[in-house]
Amino acid sequence: MNVAVTGVAGFIGSHTAEALVARGHRVLGIDAFDDFLYAAKIKRSHARGLAARLPAKAFRLAEVDICDGPAIARELATEGIEVVCHLAALAGVRPSIEDPKRYIRTNLDGTGAVLEACRNTGIDRVVFASSSSVYGARGAGQDLTRVAAFREDDPCLRPASPYAATKRAGELLCSTYVDLFGLGISALRYFTVYGPRQRPDMAIHKFARAIRDGRPVVLFGDGSSRRDYTFIDDIVAGTVAAIERVTPARFEIYNLGGTHTTSLAELVGALEAGLGKRAIREHRPDQPGDVPLTFAAIDRAREDLAYEPKIQLADGIDAFVRWLSQDGDDR
Ligand code: NAD
């Protein structure tokens, strides 16, 4: 198939493009090399890596802002694109509280422009990157080891940050395009993704660098908050399956998670073990927008996408630490 991947120079996008090409698909990668969340030069180096590793007939990069609808439509039409995997967004909870407008522009206007470009060019299959953050602050005040895993049909009415709200709004916009215009859209709720090329603003990456360099690890809250960490290879397998199976005129939501939760304190312990070095812990109060828990029920993805997360946290951290010591986006 001819697949467009928006956000191709990012963490998940660069891995997804490689996996698609490995499976015989052709990829049009779209990215604007945004400089807000982390340095554009890191994304440019990901794009250079893709161009170097992938055959030219299987991969082309277009530097386009997703908010520029006509430019996106032009690119999609020239390449005869059949499916769009829309990953481009501003990620990150805390920066979205600092600058909500920027998130609304990229994540909402941008998603609207991508959906319009699909409609106008007759593309009827889209995979949209959503997020576990749409579930909001579930589990607050409870024993987090006993809260049930989150299901796609659970109500998601109180996103705890502008970022989460834009992702939930994006899902709703997608469902409207399915009902009105016959597009087929699968929204993937990713649960804290980690692995080589992970964004430097994310906890595992930040903490690993701090421990390695002997700097304090800043922990928000008392260390009891829990996350369902998902290794990048598992996320990519689920994403590629969604791209290959998305069906016109159907709207689906899938959780893609690891199905185990790890407390913040346990995560630091796992990183200490992986790096072979003790962390200096510095505790700060909980941050606005942070949620106590994420925890994926994946029955639906298992059933429809044959999704089965394989990588345990300790193995995934080893892979991340190996990447950090060899390469680590320090170019
Ligand atoms: P990332 O920041 O590494 O990648 C996003 C890419 O989008 C970047 O390369 C950026 O340059 C590009 N981009 C931003 N604005 C753009 C614009 N206006 N036009 C074109 N390109 C633009 O993030 P990631 O971690 O790879 O996340 C990918 C997607 O998955 C995002 O939609 C994110 O919200 C979602 N997600 C990620 C996680 C995670 O744990 N990493 C969890 C849940 C959801």
Summarize the structure.
With about 325 residues, this protein is of the alpha/beta class. Helices cover about 45% and strands about 20% of the residues.
Percentage of helical residues? 40-55%
Low-confidence segments, ≥5 residues, pLDDT <50?
none
SS elements, strand count? 13
Average pLDDT, all residues: 97
Rg from Cα: 19 Å
Topology diagram in text:
Layout: E1 2-6, H1 11-22, E2 26-31, H2 40-53, E3 59-63, H3 69-78, E4 83-86, H4 94-98, H5 100-121, E5 125-131, H6 162-181, E6 184-190, E7 193-194, H7 203-213, E8 216-220, E9 226-227, E10 230-231, H8 232-245, E11 251-256, E12 262-263, H9 264-275, E13 280-284, H10 299-305, H11 313-326
Parallel strand pairs: 1-2, 1-4, 2-3, 4-5, 5-6, 6-11, 7-10, 8-13
Antiparallel strand pairs: 9-12
Q: Which key phrases capture this entry?
A:
single chain, 331 residues, alpha/beta, seven-stranded parallel sheet, two-stranded parallel ribbon, 11 helices, 13 strands, 43% helix, binds nicotinamide-adenine-dinucleotide
Explain what this protein looks like in three dimensions:
The protein has eleven helices and 13 strands. It has 331 residues and is of the alpha/beta class. The longest helix is centred in the middle third of the chain and has 22 residues. The strands form four sheets. It has a seven-stranded parallel sheet with strand order 3-2-1-4-5-6-11, sandwiched between helices. It is 43% helix and 18% strand. Nicotinamide-adenine-dinucleotide binds next to helix 1, helix 5 and strand 5.
